[in-house]
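Before the break, one more example. Copy the sequence into your notebook; we will annotate it together after we see the structure.
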Amino acid sequence: MDHVSTIFNQLLDFLPKSRFQGFTGQHKADRYVKNFTCWQQLMTLLYAQATGKDSLRDIETGLSAHGNKWYHLGLVSVTRSNLSYANGRRPWQLYESLFYELLKQCRQFCPAHNRFSFENPLYSMDATVISLCLSVFPWAKYRRTKGALKLHVLLNNRTAVPEFAVVTEGNVHEIIMAKNSSYPLPAGSILVFDKGYIDYGWFSRINKNRMFFVSRTKINTNYFIIRKNEVSEQGVISDEMIGLGGDRGMEEYTEDLRLVTYYDKEQDRILQFLTNNSALSARTIADIYKDRWQIELFFKWIKQNLKIKSFLGTSENAVLTQIWVAMIYYLLLIYIKFKTNLKLTLLEFSRIIKELFMERIPLISALGIPYRRINICRNRDDPQLSLF
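Here is what the structure looks like once it is written out:
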């Protein structure tokens, strides 16, 4: 079994280590470092994410229990003090850069699941609040008695992979982040978002860039009806071409818009959608907005399965470092799942990795094990006996 490296080591092989070392050099993050390098810090934090460790003591104890495997991993010394020091002082931008580098790799293998008949790229934009205790994290001011950060994400609905992610202070509004973003999307893309992003000036920018948007309308939207389209699809109550009323609406967005009124039978309520797309059917517009739920599921998954709600340090740098490493681990799982054409769900895959993280088992064999058999495999003297 000596020739087989651990699952952990095999996962690390998927990371662009040479590029990471380049980022480390750019930030001079390993300057004057003797033992606990940025790469070792990354390995330690990935270990914490994969195995669900909640504290520095848990990480130190867990890794110490596998001290005989440190040589193959390249670990030299992991203590609470050096990990705490690194988290507080190594620039978090280093891990943000690695996230985007790994994202480039993911895009090469991401299969596009087309749930719609149209070929337009489909993206969802939203943000989620990461709550923090203001007395422990005084720099993360959100409200008078609450602290928070906000994770803004543009999600590719066809691949479930973030196209970009930005972490800001909790009081930064979603539309401010969207208007300040310069991330280029291909012409013809469809961008779906909720009512928090309604801004007629931003709508105009989207339209000028030859992209489409789908959003919910606000109750107080001022508009006038230009014409009514024929309605024949189930659930569609009305399909109207409208113009924005009021001084602000008429000044900031001068083109016609489309207003689709739809009855959602599942939730027993009437919804109205605003879009600049006049080619797709009214029912498709409603289904596009329904597909925005993908980004809600993404936020739910990372909050339930990654360590971004409890933190190993209290400084801003430590918190941001942990968030970006969590996002790196998510991309790493997605990347391996796509590259190996794995049929397991991401949750099943992450649970298998958690159970076998420090085991000397070929990764490709481990992925073929039914989840219910993992504990049986781990208890045998030779794990490979149960794999082939």
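Confidence is low (pLDDT under 50) at residues 376-388. The CA atoms of residues 251 and 315 lie 45 Å apart. Try to locate both features in your own notes.
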